[in-house]
Amino acid sequence: MAALGGLLLLLLLVLLLLLAAGLYCCYVWRVHAAFEHIPGAPRERSKKYGPIVRVNAFHRVSVLILSPEGVKEFLMSPEYPKDRLVYGQIFNLFGVR
């Protein structure tokens, strides 16, 4: 009887682990889907589609801006959301808004 309880507990633990992994995969898919319209990382794509490239790293999506003018426009404009950690370190690069 005790072995059956242990087996049932192990099965429940495996099912919870699979559920957590499935939910994490759905989360990663949702984060990546938000930036699907931006071309990926290869240099040929940046030459073809312009100076903005997206990079997927697990659940984090980064957008790279490859031209100095684009970087300045991005940093100086309040309409684009910025990562507070990174932006807090480089906001003085182009002067005060």
Considering the chains and any ligands shown, give keywords for the structure.
97 residues, elongated, alpha+beta, two-stranded antiparallel ribbon
Write the topology of this structure.
Layout: H1 2-33, H2 43-49, E1 52-57, E2 60-65, H3 68-76, H4 84-90
Antiparallel strand pairs: 1-2
How would you portray this structure in words?
The chain is of the alpha+beta class and 97 residues long. It has a domain of 33 residues. 57% of the residues lie in helices and 12% in strands. The protein is built from four helices and two strands, in the order H-H-E-E-H-H. Strands 1-2 form a two-stranded antiparallel sheet. Strand 1 and strand 2 form a beta hairpin. The longest helix is centred in the first third of the chain and has 32 residues. The radius of gyration is 22 Å and the shape is elongated. The mean pLDDT is 76.
Overall helicity = 55-70%
Structural class assignment: alpha+beta
The averaged pLDDT comes out at 76
Enumerate how many helices there are, as a single number.
4
Please state roughly what percent of the residues sit in beta strands, choosing from under 5%, 5-15%, 15-25%, 25-35%, 35-45% or over 45%: 5-15%
InterPro entries: CYP46A1, Cyt_P450_sf
GO molecular function: cholesterol 24-hydroxylase activity; heme binding; iron ion binding
Question: What's the short version?
Answer:
This protein has 4 helices and 2 strands. By secondary structure, it is α+β, with helices and mostly antiparallel strands.
